[in-house]
Every structure is written in structure tokens, then in C-alpha cells.
Design goal:
By secondary structure, this protein is α/β, with parallel strands linked by helices. It is 38% helix and 13% strand.
């Protein structure tokens, strides 16, 4: 779209602009392959001299329309969909880190990302140092090495609900000549656009609020186009020196602001193949069309429930940045002035068993390994998603052993409170 529209309009209309006689609704291009008239046309695609579709493992028109919508919402230059949020975070880092490199990461991140970075990527020879995101700049600086290639954090951490000081992180990253990558899954671009605060790359698990209905696992990477790879050419040879697998093409020279995302598509996706199915991209797009309405309702309901929980004497603690006495309240007011998300972390007085009894008593709110969809749900990370971690690792990741993660949906809030009340007994 030509004009700069506001977020609500982008949610509904961006990405697919049909021409005369074409479908009004984004079609599902359920085709692995695309036809050309002669061999020369096809050859130019393989040399990245023309843009176009040839095989869905690299690019598909349905996916590209949805990626363009997400990129517009984030205010980036381009985006790419992946098969899952895990794939998005892996590609986002692996696109600029290779064996022998190192990166720095907040401990307050999703459990799956924690395992990916601390176990699986180490096996690829990529080293990583965890830091406390609330530490001073001087303290965080100590984790940086000459071979450090990026800094990583989550806008609002899953499941600890810690709010990231994005400007501080951006300053540290840029002082060290590396990009800041922010996983913006929980905030969504409706509540926060990390690029406005200096982040360079944004990732998403679109499985969460973006899809919003728990129908399709997916991920996305968005490039701000702001990081100057050539200014730090020695650190990023993958972007600034010729790629032998594309006849010696250099991404930063040929694609400028689109260098990072082009490499992610043309090299990472070509070789590793975690493409999102076009059918899932279609479902994701339906979710995105109402993202602005749903996120607002999730936040309103969560605020009410967080206030209610904090008044209840069976509740030991509540972590929701919308509460005035919350340690992240000031950061949330700066970065998330319209609301944070629908996820509340809280603990009950008594033992771990108390948490399990409470969850088993819930009727409307279900126990599921999911978060951030229309239906309210609950999870006990210490006995579910994070069960591989010791109590000490749990605390390091901002997850208290008694933490209950309540994902507040878009149902009637009085019905939700009634369910919580009866389950508390
Ligand atoms: C769920 C989640 C992921 C992983 O996404 P999947 O789509 O489940 O692979 C990554 N980051 C955050 C913040 C998440 O909540």
C-alpha cells in the first residue's frame, strides 16, 4: 500500500492488494512450484537477478503477503515467515553467527529459546553468554567479546513477564558494533514496535497472539533495514563478502537495506527449509486481521484479573506490569503505554501442590501447553514447559518454581474471575 496507514488499517488490509478481477481475500497459493516461459527467465531467478517465485521452499506468494503485513506493522523493510517461532529465532541468529562466533542473551527468555541457544547452538560451535537484563550497562558489557555478533532479548519475557529496557539494550549492542534482536511475541506490534527504540531485527512466534486462535504454529523475522553491515564488515563476512553458493554475490552490495532478510531467505531458508505452509499463512492472516481488537481485549481482561488476584489473600504474589507496584511498571509505561499482554504470572501461598490443585479445579480455563490465544489457559512451567530446568536454572530464567502462567483470553472477564474464585476454593 502506498500511503502510510495506521496499525488497525494495516492489520486488516496490508499485504494483499488485488488487481482487477482477482480474489478480494488473500488466496492460498497451494503450489510447490511456479511456471516460466523460457529457461532464461528461470535462470535469472536462480541468480537472484530477478525476483519471483520458483519453489515454495524459498518463497510463496501467500507467505510473502503475510510477511509484508507483519513487516509493515513492525515498521520494518521486509519480513520472512518461518514454520515456527523456534525456527525464526534460530534463523535470526544463525544468519549472522557461525561456528566460532558468540552472542549475548538475556536470561529472561522463552524456555524453548533457552534450550536452543544454550544446548543445540553450542553443538554447532556458536557460544552464548546469558546476562541479567536488569543489570547495569557496565555489567552487561563484560559479557561482550571480540567475536560477539548480536544481543538478544524478549520485549516481555515468556513466562516471567519481565519487560525489557530496549533502548538500553540497543545502546549496548550498537556500542559493540552488533545488532539487537528482539523477540516481540508477547507485546505484538500493536503494543510495542521495538524498531522505534533501536532494535535492528524483530522475531515472532506467530503461533501466539498473531494467529490468536491456536490453529497454526508459525514464526516471522522482520528486518528494520537500519543496521549498517558494511560499517562492521569484518564481523559479518556472511553479509559483506561474496557468497560462493550464489556465484559470488555479496548481499550488502546487491541488496543494501534488504541484505539481512535476503540472505535469510535465499540462503537460510533454501538450505534449512523451515518454510511456513501457505495454508498456515492464510490462517495467520485471518488472525492478523483482528489482532488490534483482540490484543486490546486481552489486556483489559488481564488488567482486571491481575488486580483481582493481587487483592486475594490466597495469592502470594502477582507479576503483571499493569499493576502500579510492579517492578516493571515504569518500563511498561515507557515501552507499552497501551497495555502489555494478556499473560499474568502469579504464585499461590502454600506448596507446589497448591498450584497443581488450583489448576485441576479450573473449569473454564484449561490446562494446555499454549499461551496467548482467544481461550484462557493456564500452565505451571516448573512441571510442564520448563521441567528440564533445575530450580536454580528456573530462577535464573525468571521463572519461580511456584509460578503459574495464566494466559487471559477474550471471554467475559466476570466468567473468568468466577472460575478462578471457585478453583481457589
Ligand atoms: C512460543 C514462543 C517461541 C517459540 O515459538 P513456537 O512457535 O512455539 O516455535 C519463541 N519465543 C516466544 C517468546 C514464545 O512465546
Amino acid at each position: 500500500m502506498e500511503k502510510k496507514y495506521r496499525r488497525e488499517t494495516l492489520c486488516v488490509q496490508e499485504g494483499w492488494t488485488p488487481k482487477k478481477g482477482e480474489p478480494r481475500v488473500l488466496p492460498i497459493y497451494q503450489s510447490t512450484t511456479f511456471k516460466y516461459d523460457n529457461s532464461e527467465q528461470m535462470a535469472r531467478l536462480f541468480d537472484l537477478e530477478d525476483s519471483g517465485y520458483f519453489y515454495t521452499r524459498l518463497q510463496n506468494p501467500t507467505n510473502d503477503a503475510v510477511a509484508a503485513k507483519i513487516a509493515a506493522l513492525e515498521g520494518g523493510v521486509a519480513g520472512m515467515l518461518t514454520s515456527s517461532g523456534q525456527a525464526a529465532n534460530f534463523y535470526a541468529v544463525f544468519n549472522i553467527c557461525e561456528s566460532g562466533d558468540h552472542f549475548v542473551c538475556s536470561t529472561a527468555i522463552y524456555g524453548g529459546t533457552y534450550n536452543l541457544f544454550s544446548v543445540t547452538m553450542k553443538k554447532l560451535g556458536i557460544d552464548m553468554t546469558f546476562i541479567d537484563q536488569n543489570a547495569s550497562e557496565e555489567e552487561i558489557q563484560k559479557a561482550f567479546r571480540p567475536n560477539t555478533k548480536c544481543l538478544f532479548g524478549e520485549t516481555i519475557s515468556n513466562p516471567g513477564c519481565e519487560v525489557l529496557d530496549i533502548e538500553k539494550f540497543a545502546r549496548i549492542a550498537h556500542r559493540n558494533g552488533v545488532p539487537l534482536i528482539v523477540d516481540n511475541t508477547f507485546a505484538t506490534p500493536i503494543n510495542c514496535r521495538p524498531f522505534e527504540w533501536g532494535a535492528d531485527i524483530v522475531t515472532h512466534s506467530t503461533t501466539k497472539y498473531m494467529d490468536g486462535h491456536a490453529t497454526a504454529v508459525g514464526g516471522a523475522i522482520v528486518d528494520s533495514g537500519n543496521f549498517d553491515w558494511d560499517a562492521h564488515a569484518d564481523k559479518f563476512p556472511g553479509l559483506t563478502t561474496p557468497d560462493a553458493s550464489y556465484h559470488g554475490l555479496t548481499y550488502s552490495k546487491s541488496f543494501g537495506k534488504m541484505a539481512y532478510i535476503t540472505k535469510a531467505t535465499a540462503q537460510m531458508m533454501r538450505d534449512l527449509g523451515s518454510i511456513q505452509a501457505p495454508m498456515n499463512a492464510f490462517l495467520l492472516n485471518l488472525g492478523l486481521e483482528t489482532l488490534h481488537l483482540r490484543v486490546k481485549r486481552h489486556c483489559e481482561n488481564a488488567q482486571r484479573i491481575a488486580e483481582w488476584l493481587s487483592q486475594n489473600d490466597k495469592v502470594a504474589w502477582v507479576n503483571y506490569s499493569g499493576l502500579p507496584d510492579n517492578p516493571y511498571h515504569a518500563l511498561a509505561q515507557k515501552y507499552l503505554p497501551n497495555g502489555s499482554c494478556g499473560v499474568i504470572a502469579f504464585g499461590l501461598k502454600g506448596s507446589r501442590e497448591e498450584a497443581i490443585r488450583f489448576m485441576d479445579n479450573l473449569k473454564l480455563i484449561c490446562i494446555v501447553t499454549h499461551v496467548a490465544d482467544a481461550r484462557s489457559c493456564v500452565l505451571h512451567p516448573a512441571s510442564h514447559t520448563h521441567r528440564q530446568l533445575s530450580d536454580e536454572q528456573l530462577r535464573e530464567a525468571g521463572v519461580a518454581p511456584d509460578l503459574i502462567r495464566l494466559s487471559v483470553g477474550i471471554e467475559n472477564v466476570e466468567d473468568l474471575i468466577a472460575d478462578i474464585e471457585q478453583a481457589l476454593g
